[in-house]
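#struct-help
A.M.: can someone run this one for me? Single chain, 150 residues.
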Amino acid sequence: MVKEIIHVGLTVSNIERSVAFYCDILKMRFLGELLMQGPETDMLFAQKDCKVRVAYLSSGDELSSPPVELIEFVSQTPETNESRLDRIGISEICFQVPDIEAFYAHLQKHNVPCLSEPQFFDFSADGFGKSKALYFRDPDGIILEAMQIL
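D.P.: on it. Structure tokens below:
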């Protein structure tokens, strides 16, 4: 039934700040922004008088890489929950990077909170190969992952 992933959505508190982080720090490409409002938006989000700003970012030109959709509720302040890896729900988005040590240094230079330095994993025996990975947080504390396939 499912054909492909069209985008991955993240609710953020300040779309300008988030676009700046994802574009300036993570070097994603800004694709555009739109404003959603009206009866269809109210129905879609199950809210009354809902107004939502939505920005789309791309991590690359590859078709296999779906855009990241940033959503800011203008008509209300969304509930804030601490993003944790051990909670039910989407735990993180993983971005592939060519050199995780350089990426980690870049995050450190820009004072991006990281849960650890890069860690090595060998899942060759399970058919998944070797990688290095780390978790870090965006300006809203949303957990993201960077992974270098070795």
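A.M.: thanks! Strands lie at 8-11, 29-37, 51-58, 68-73, 93-96, 119-123, 129-137, 143-149.
D.P.: also worth noting: The mean pLDDT is 91.
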